[in-house]
Amino acid sequence: MIEALCTQIAILLRRHLDNPQSEAHSDGAHLGAAQIRSIEDMLDCAGPTPSLAQMAEHCGMSPRHFGRLFRLACGLSVTEFAIKRRVEKAKALLGETAMPIKQVAWECGFQTAGAFSSAFRRATGLQPSAYRNARRM
After folding, report:
1. 73 and 102: one domain?
2. pLDDT tens-digit map of 46-105
3. 50 and 107, same domain (yes or no)
4. In sequence order, which residues have a C-beta less than 8 Å from that of residue 34 and are 6 or more positions away?
5. Which of 66, 81, 96 is where one domain is finished?
């Protein structure tokens, strides 16, 4: 079910990004594709997740306005989107590398292995090690 929702979100996001009208910066009523890509880049960096205030400032908006427009554009809160994106990256790393789980956690932006394990389990229903073992079979 989660993968189906993620696929649907990816499709909607791709449609939004492919829309030529969305290439301009925000007019204050919506987030432009360039702004969404910029936020994705911020979220893809290893280390702690940027705060809502940092992302809003990056886009030249108040945190409240940014959060509302982000949810309208992506269908998820900034936090939900960040966790989904980082768990997807973790799934790829767990399935394709022998990287230690603690390192996967850090590479995906989680500050501790415990926080990573909890978020991963909530999103997939499996512990990271169980997911890795299932992918190897």
Report:
1. no
2. 777 889 999 999 999 999 999 999 999 999 999 999 999 999 999 999 999 999 999 999
3. no
4. 23, 24, 25
5. 81
pLDDT at 30 over 80: yes
Tell me the Ramachandran region of residue 26: left when phi exceeds 0, alpha when psi lies from -120 to 50, beta otherwise.
beta
| Count of domains observed in the chain | 2
The pTM (predicted TM-score) of the whole model is 0.71
- 134/15 Cα distance (integer angstroms): 33
Q: Which two tokens stand for residue 67?
A: 């959060």
- 74 and 99 in a single domain? The answer is no
Place of tokens 């590398």: 97
Q: How far apart are CA 87 and CA 39, in angstroms?
A: 16
Dihedral class, residue 102 (left if φ above 0, else alpha if ψ from -120 to 50, else beta):
alpha
